[in-house]
Amino acid sequence: MQEPIDSAKIERLLKRAAEYAAHSVTSVISKLDDGHVPPRKVFYDCLGQMHELEVHFLFPNLPEKQRELLVELLNARRSLMTGLSKAVHQPSAGGKKRQDQLLTQLKQQFIGLQCRAERLKDEASLTPFQKQILECEFLCLPHEA
Fold first, then answer.
1. Which long-range contacts (CB under 8 A, 24 or more apart) does 142-145 make?
2. Is the CB of residue 136 less than 8 Å from the CB of residue 72?
3. What is the pLDDT of residues 52-93, one digit of tens each?
4. Which structural domain range is residue 30 located in?
5. Alpha-helical segments (H) within the chain
6. Within-domain flag for 76
7. Full-prediction pTM beyond 0.90?
8. Number of domains making up the chain
């Protein structure tokens, strides 16, 4: 039987994972030579690295291949959530159509990764708490799209 979800405990752990990742990325950024790398690339590289570090922090006991899948899923989930939150603010009809197309692509990407990651719920090396985090923070959307 699965323990009830302790959302406060999950939130504390997610916050610690994000702090760990942010601290690590901050130290990497401070070592960059200014002007040699476009800021946009630095931003996306750091964002990707933060997701990798968060997943590694939360699931250190998973093999690298499975953690890579979770990083992809986390990226897709957060992109979709961002897209859904921005959907309300699109004024023009052309902009709305483009945004709908993008949201459709993001949903398809998320669902494909979600199906692949669904098998991890049965992973023997995961603790019940890690399985709860996987279910609540990776496999579902707060407001199902």
1. 142/81, 143/84, 145/80, 145/84, 145/103, 145/107
2. no
3. 999 999 999 999 999 999 999 999 998 898 888 776 665 676
4. 7-137
5. 7-30, 39-58, 64-86, 93-117, 128-137
6. yes
7. no
8. 1
